[in-house]
Design a protein that fits this description.
The chain contains six helices and three strands. By secondary structure, the protein is mostly helical. β2 and β3 form a beta hairpin. It is globular. The relative contact order is 0.07.
Length: 170
């Protein structure tokens, strides 16, 4: 039909669409940060510590502090402080890499699965209910959107981290 946008790109989104998605993203971001801050508080961790622990738990093998900094987007100095606190809390331990004794790797201590289930199982049940309201085709589109936005947000975090330092006059 004349005048309708094609079903797929290329097209430019309308300014109100960019604004609307920006606002939805901000709301989702706030809700996500607040959820993880609450989870961290429940576990005796800051939101940053909790998310760094989550990253380390998802890695297939122990990782270096440098790799955790890379995956989290934090500086190596910030990661050192996070790891110090996680180690004091008994959540991780630093050990020598068995393949290269010059390297130190971060190993995750055995998690408290009962508490983890208590925190996350109801959330995953709720997620399943939300997902069940979409068709497989819609879920594929949502999956693609979330994956692309995740990569975009990592790029944006790197871009902001790499900005020149603010001057004292700023």
């Amino acid at each position: 039909m004349a005048g309708e946008r094609p079903a797929r790109p290329p097209w430019e989104p309308e300014p109100n669409e960019v604004s609307e998605f920006g606002e939805l993203g901000r709301r989702l971001g706030v809700a996500t940060v607040m959820f993880h801050a609450t989870v961290g508080e429940r576990l005796g961790l800051s939101a940053t510590e909790q998310k760094c622990l989550d990253i380390a738990m998802r890695e297939p093998q122990p990782l270096t502090a440098g790799r955790l900094a890379e995956l989290s987007g934090l500086s190596t100095g910030a990661i050192t402080g996070v790891l110090d606190r996680l180690e004091r809390a008994g959540r991780v331990r630093r050990t020598r890499d068995p393949h290269d004794r010059r390297k130190v790797v971060v190993e995750v201590a055995e998690p408290d699965w009962a508490e983890t289930r208590q925190v996350f199982e109801p959330m995953l049940d709720g997620l399943a209910k939300v997902l069940s309201t979409y068709t497989p085709e819609q879920l594929e589109l949502i999956r693609e959107f979330v994956a692309r936005m995740t990569e975009f947000m990592h790029e944006q975090a790197t871009r902001v981290r790499d900005l020149p330092p603010r001057s004292a006059d700023d």
